[in-house]
Every structure is written in structure tokens, then in C-alpha cells.
Amino acid sequence: MIKILDGRDASTESERQHGRAGTTSRGGRSRRAFLASAGTTAALGVAGCLGSGGDTVKVGFAVAQSGAYTLLGESVINGFKLRVEEELDGQLGGRDVEFVSQDTEGDPGTGSSIAQEFITREEVDVIVGSISGAVASAMRPVIEDHVDDLVWLCPVGIGWQWPMDTPTDDVSVSCTSTQFITGDAYYQPSAPMADFAIENLGDSCVLAFADYSAGYQYGGLFRNRFEELGGDIAGEVPVPVGTEDYKPYLQNVDTSADFVFGMFAGSDAINFVKQFHETGLHEELDLSGVGFLAEADALGAQGDAAVGTYSALPYTPGKDTERNQEFVEAYQDVNDREPNVYACTSYDAAQVADTAIEEVGGTDANDIADVIPGIEVDSPRGYFEMTDSMPYHPVQDVDIRRVVATEGDAPPTNEVIDTIERVKAPFDCA
Amino acid sequence: MSAHPVLAVEGIDTYYGRSHVLFDLSLEVGAGETVALIGNNGAGKTTTLRSIMGLTPPERGRILFRGEEIQGCKPNEIRRRGVSLVPEDRRIFPSLTVAENVELAAAAGSTTTDVYDRFPVLDDRRDQRAGTLSGGEQQMLAIARGLVGPPTELLLLDEPTEGLAPQIVEDVSEVVEALTDDGITILLVEQNAELALELADRAYVIETGRIVHEAGGDELLHDPEVLETHLGVR
Amino acid sequence: MVGFEALVRATILGLQFGTTLALLVAGLTLVFGLMDVINLAHGSLYMLGAYFGVTLVDAGGSFWLALVVAPVAVGVVGLLMEVFTLRPLYGREPLYQILVTLGLAFVVEESVKEVWGTSAQNFAAPAVLAGSIDIAGVTYSQYQAFVLLFTTVLVAAIWVGLERTNVGVLLQATAHDPEMVDALGFDVSRVFTGVFAVSAVLAGLAGVLLGPARAVTPSMWFNVVLLAFAIIVIGGLGNFRGAIVASLLVGLLTGYAALLVPSYTELLVFALMAVVLLVRPAGIFGTATGDPG
Ligand SMILES: Nc1ncnc2c1ncn2[C@@H]1O[C@H](COP(=O)(O)OP(=O)(O)OP(=O)(O)O)[C@@H](O)[C@H]1O
Ligand SMILES: [Mg+2]
């Protein structure tokens, strides 16, 4: 065992670049890595011999490509590939890229075995995914066993859970040293709305949310921030996930409040917004919510019912900057549709990987993981930088958007009306 | 008798799934005749009527109604040609009223619903739910239902007196006789051989799916050997 | 403390929800009552109604045109389903029909994805009904009030029709003893096809009516089938009146639960189903014979 490692240490520079277990003494983490890998030396040795070889970088997409998350999975793949194939000549950090992808079907069990397969059989250098938080939770332990072997980029699902009603300052989450979130960390699409709302919408709010862990988590982060700013939560309206008829629940909305903060995603967001409008509540209260309450993909289906809805998200396809226009046009050229937020966060994942691999001059996971913290990214959403401590995620500006009607038959769209700057999730690692 | 008998069953074999029930069975019913089909429990009487009605079509052989083959037809087509079944256990629609039972059957054809003259007991109970009628009344309703709708030329009666009190049996026989007088051809299945032979011009005896005897009604009734061996009558 | 006014409002909302459920289960329970087929593709027919609505409105047709044309088109789909996939299976074990209709549900879902894509679609309620009105302290959009009225009238008409008309009598008799009805001279296989097509029309109608208020997605059939199934179990499989009453009951239960214990609403509905199955397996209004009256 020692021999093999010794041998690798003595190997040529180029072998070192591609060998996965070829770490040298780089402080605490690699010592831990060394101990962790001690039990699987043989496997690592083989991995070193048969590694994807040459100068290539292997990227594995573990995202849903069927079921409710299909569109999101496609957006992640398309966003990443747009950066690599259209703008980087098919390379990341000057190395040719090989893609593999597998359908998690939104199922945690499938997700975990895909992660396993990507690591041991495909020997990927980078995993991108998943979409669902539950799938990410299932992938985490598998990836944690192989932190020396690959980097984990998360444009969407993160896989965190914390007890409901935890004060934000006490929230502690599972951290993995190679997990890099390029999307949002639960905090950015929810809490910043409180800053905007207290100034612009009023100090009394009804919280309506999908009755499951993410609903409580996003809702809780907003509530904590809102109360911290002196706001008052006048009522809470939990609604079961997958509800078709929201009207019986909407009766609980206290119309004497100033506005509603809604936390619903996917078709729940569509049903909620439509029926909020249909029951006439929009005439009495403003509607605000997490970013995906009125996300680009949903607006088409929500139609005019969404007009006037406020939401917070780091990225808005209609954002009027040169960088964004460029991105939107390029994306539309290739994919025939407007990018959504996940296309952008995945595009940025490719940017992060490109910069890091370039800087390291190789695909060694530990080396890459060492350089990503603090990295600055020129994203379509605007510049952001990765935090320098775990959990690694972007410190980024958050757009406050308002849905406005468009002329003609086109669906309404989000207009950025305010920006909350440099938002960072105040979470500790468990 | 016209050129064709009203009904000619020619060598049919009928199965329930894989169990063979009727074996090369033949019988004929001439116009205006009342013919009885008698036999023990499980002999195949009901199955014979079901075969004729198209409910359990035979796999081999032919069934001719007025000279035309009907063995491939669906029950509703056979009914519209003029064959009507009054089934074993009556099978009236219990949740419907008497009038609804009659009107429903009438709606399948053009004849009037005016059967109440023939069945005064029903006339008094038009709005009563059929399920609440007495056994005799239910039997009358079943027969009435078989007479409305498409014009009935051949009536298949499956044990119309089963489970009825002697007085009511009498009433039912009167109805059957009246039908015969009106020129309706009848194929009558009965376990009550004595009654059957009284009503019928001719009779067939069926045993385990085969016709074993055919004779004029009186003839059978007075043949002690037949009565004893085939019908268990002493 | 929940006030009187809130209870009144919950009652109204519950009844309103109940009537939409009634429209959704009416066809399902008719088909089961007559043909003993648990049609798991019923939700798919509902979904098709909504998608046809999307296309017709997009193509410049009015909502009212869609309200007529889409259900008829769904009826045609239902007719083809019955003739080509179900008819050969009558008289077999129910498992065959469950498998076939489930298969059809997936076929429809995949076809919808092919034709309309995976993202949610939308079509708007008619502009004439854009305003809102107040009934007993509850604000309704005029469209919602229209749906409530339309649905109530339609369901009541079916109810009365089943009891009072000749067709209703025929259907009751067929549910009780299809063989006998055939022997009386009615082509029962046509009755089956007709009922299945009408059930599809009702599902399609529900799709167009509810579409403007809901997300039109390729997976919208599933929750609908689940809930509709729970309701017909509660009402007594195949029992039409039972299914309608159960719809209103489940609507009210949802209305009150959403007011008092919102997190337990779904649980309560399925708990009610489980209790009914344990205590009265034939359903609250079920009879041993399973006839639909
Ligand atoms: N649906 C069925 N499936 C299988 N076998 C059947 C079925 N119906 C009847 N049989 C069998 O066919 C045979 C003839 O039955 P059928 O009912 O014709 O007799 P039957 O003469 O009418 O008797 P009964 O006087 O008791 O009415 C019997 O052995 C019976 O068990
Ligand atoms: Mg019999």
C-alpha cells in the first residue's frame, strides 16, 4: 500500500496531474484523505492506472430527465454544455471534456447508485446534480466517501434539512468539503424579500407555504429575517404538496395583513398563484414569494394571474445587462427556448470548473477544491464570489422582481425592480 | 304447420368454458305448439334455453328460428327477431318499479305496454318496487316483461312455477294456457313434470345434456317407465 | 377561536370544492357501476380536456367554443379506448382492466409530453367573467361562480336523469343485470360504449372548466385519479348517488380541515376512506348488489 502511494509520488508530472490518489502532503485535508483511502488502496491503485486518461475532464450529470423535474434536468445539462461547447471549444481549463449523464428520475435511491457508478465505474472528475434536494441528500454520503476523487457542483438541489422553526442563526447544515453550490443556498430566494417587503409592502405578512420540509425551511428563513426587521407574521397557511384546489386553504389568509409571502414550486406555484387571483385576494393583499413562485417556466402557465407578484431570486432571464443578454441569446440559439435560473446556475458551474481546472492545471479533486473558495465568477446574474468557508456557495446580489404584463399574447415576465446586494447564507456546518 | 318449424335445434354442443354440457342436442317446436323440456336437476334444461337465446352460444350445430340460423346472433338480435326468454329465477330488476320494468322491456320494440289486462295483479302495483313483490307476482312480472317489446313469436319459459304455492302455480298455468290460446309458441322447461305434461302438446326428456325421449304429452304422462326412470316420479 | 363566519365560509368553499369533485367522479362511478371497470385513465381524459382547451383557445377559438368542442373530442378518444382496448376484456378478471387502463394513462401522459411538451400550459378564463362577486362573505371570481353553477346544474341533471328518464332506467337495469338487458333486446355493448364515451365527455368537461384555475401539466391526471378513487370507495363503488354525496362530504371535510387543521387535510380524506372500508366495505351508500340507484 505504502509502496503504491510512494510510487505515485515518484511518478512523472503528467501522471500526477491525472492520477486521482496522487496527493502529496497538503496539510490536514490530504492527511485525512490519506487515512480515508487507506482501506481502499487497491481500488485507488487501479483507478490510477485506468483513469480517464490523457488530458480529459469527465463530467457526470446526475439529474432528473423524466418526471416532474424533466425541464429542470434539461436546463442544467444545456446550461453547462452551452459554456463548454459554445464558448470554451469543448474544453474545461484547457482540457477536453467528456460528458456522461444518467436519469435520477427524481428518486433518492437511484441518485445514490448513480453517484456510486459515476465514481467507481465512470471515474468522473466532476458530478453535476441533482435537481431534487432529497436526491442530493442521498448522494451526499456516497460522495463524502470519495472527496479525494471528484468535485461536486450543485446548481439546484443541495440536500440540506434542518428542524422546522430553527432560528436562522442556529441553522446548521451538512457540509461536504467538495460540494460547491452555484445556485442558491435556500437563503437567497427567501430572506432578502423581507428586506424589500418591510420597506415597500408593509409590516404585516401571511406566510403561505407547501407543507413539507422545504416549505418550512424557505418560509422559516423569510419569517426570521422579517421578524428581525420588525415585521409581524399575521398568520401561517400550510397547504399539502400537490393540492389542486387551493381555495379551501386560501380562506385562512387574513386579509387585514399587508401582503402574502408564498413558498410553492412547480405546479403548486401555478395553482397557488392562479387561485390566489381567482379568489380575488390580489385585490386585498400584495403577493410575494420565493423566486420560483413566479419563475420564467411557470409564468406561461400562470398567465395574467401572476401580474404584480413579487419574488426574489439571484437570476432573472429578463435582466437588462450586456452579459445577460449575451447569455440569453446564445442559450436561445442552441436550445430554442429562454434559459431559466437553473440554466444560468449550471452555466456558472461550468465557469467555476473551468477557472479552477485552469488554475490547478489538472483534475485533482483536492487541488480543485482548494482553489474554488473565493473564486470570482462573471455570471449572467452579475459578478459573484464563492464563500471561502463551508458551506461553499455564492455571495451574490439578489434581484427583487415584479411580474409585469407584456404586450400582445406573450406571457407576462419578471422585471427587476430592486437589488439586495451581496447576500450570504449565515449557516454553520453541522 | 308451415314449411319451417318455428324453432329447430340441430345437433348442438354447448360448453361452459371447458365443461361440456349439451351433447349433439336436437329438438323442434312447431308454430303454436307448447313443447315441454323436462329433466332432472342439472340435466341441461336452462343451458338449452340459454343456447337458443344466444346467452351461451353452442360451439357446434345449428339453431334455426323460422328457418334462419340464429346461433351466431347476439341475445338482443335474437330477441328482436321474436324469441323471448323468461329466465330461471325471474331476474326482474328489483330496484325499479313494476311499471319501469315493463316500460324498459317495451322500449326495446314497438308493441304496447298494455299487458296489465292479462296481469291484473301487476296493474294494482305499477309503482311498487319490483323487489318487494311476492314470488308469484314477480313471476307474472317476468312473463309480462317477456311479452312486451319486440313482437314475441316464441316464448322460452324456464321453470315458471318454481318455488310457488299451489294456488299460485294454478294462476301461472292459466296464464300459460291463455298465451297458447293467443297463438304464442312456447318452449317450457319444468321440473314439475306433471304440470308440464298437462300444459304441453309434446315433450322432450333431457338427461345429462342429451335428449333421451320425445313423445306426445299424454303419452309420456301415461308411460310409467318413462316417468320412473327419467323423472323419478312414482 | 374559529368564528361562526369562518365556519360558514368553510362550508361554502367545501361545497364548492365538492361539486367539482362530483363532476370528476360522476363519469368514473357510472363506468364502474355499469361495466365493473375501474378506469384508471379517467384522470387522463380529464387532462386531455384541459389540453384540448389549451390548444383550442391558443388557436384563437373562444373559451366557449373550447367548452363544447374539447369534451366532444375527449368523448371520441374515450369511445376509441373502449372499443379497442376494453371491449375485448369484458368478463375477464378486473385485474386485466386495471392494467389496461393504467397502461392507457401512461400512454396518454407520454403522448401529451410529445405533443405539448413537459412544461405547464395555460389558458385563460373568458374575459366576460373576469370580475368578482361576493357570496356570504366569500369573494368568488365570476368564472368560479359560473363553474359552480354549471357543475351543480349538470350533476343534478345527471342525478335526476338517472332516476327519471328512460335512459336512466336502462342504465340502472344494465348495472344490475347486463345479460338480462341484452336478452330484452338492447345491445348492451353499445350501452357500454355510450356510457364510456359520456363518462369521457364529463371528464373532458371538467378539464376545460377547471383548466383555467389549475396548472395544466402532463402529470395532472394522477392526483385526480387518486382522489376520485377515494371518493367512489367512500360512496360505494359504482353507486352514483353515493359518489355524489361522498364528493360533497369530502369537499366539506377538506373545507373544515383546511380551516382548522390544514396539515391533516389529505390524511383525513384517506383516513375516511380507510374507516369506510373497515366499517362499511360496500361504501356509505353501497348495496350488496352494487346497482347504481
Ligand atoms: N355457468 C356455468 N358454468 C359451468 N357449469 C355450469 C354453469 N351453469 C350450469 N352449469 C352446469 O351445466 C349443467 C347443466 O346446467 P343447467 O343449469 O342447464 O341445468 P338445469 O337442467 O337447468 O338444472 P335445474 O333444474 O337445476 O335448473 C350442470 O351440470 C351445471 O352444473
Ligand atoms: Mg335450470
Over the alpha carbons, how many angstroms does the gyration radius of chain B reach? 17 Å
Can you give the mean pLDDT of chain B? 89
Oligomeric nature of the chains = heterotrimer
Summarize the amount of helix of chain C as a percent range: over 70%
- Which ligands, by name, code or SMILES, are bound? adenosine-5'-triphosphate, magnesium ion
- Could you tell me the radius of gyration of chain C in angstroms? 19 Å
Order of strands across the widest beta sheet of chain C?
Answer: 1-2
What is the string of SSEs of chain B from the N terminus onward? EEEHEEHEHHHEHEHEEHH
Q: Percent helix among the residues of chain B?
A: 25-40%
| Overall strand count of chain C | 2
How does the major sheet of chain B shape up?
Answer: 6 strands, mixed
Unreliable runs of chain B: none
If you had to describe this structure to a student in words, what would you say it looks like?
The complex is a heterotrimer of chains A (430), B (234) and C (293). Chain A has 430 residues and is α/β, with parallel strands linked by helices. Helix content of chain A is 40%, strand content 22%. Chain A is built from 15 helices and 17 strands. In chain A, strands 8, 9, 10, 11, 12, 13, 14, 15 and 16 form a nine-stranded mixed beta sheet that branches. Chain A has a six-stranded mixed beta sheet with strand order 2-3-1-4-5-7, with helices on both faces. The model of chain A is unreliable at 1-53 (pLDDT under 50). In chain B, strands 6-7-8-3-9-10 form a six-stranded mixed beta sheet, sandwiched between helices. Chain B has a four-stranded antiparallel beta sheet with strand order 2-1-4-5, covered by helices on one side. In chain B, strand 1 and strand 2 form a beta hairpin. The longest helix of chain B is centred in the last third of the chain and has 16 residues, at 166-181. The termini of chain B are far apart. Chain C is 72% helix and 3% strand. A two-stranded antiparallel ribbon of chain C has the order 1-2. Mean pLDDT of chain C is 89; it is low at 288-293. Chains in contact: A-C, B-C. Chains A and C meet through strand 9, helix 10, helix 11 and helix 12 of A and helix 1, strand 2, helix 9 and helix 10 of C. Bound molecules: adenosine-5'-triphosphate and magnesium ion (MG). Residues 16, 19, 21, 39, 41-47, 88, 191 of chain B line the site of adenosine-5'-triphosphate.
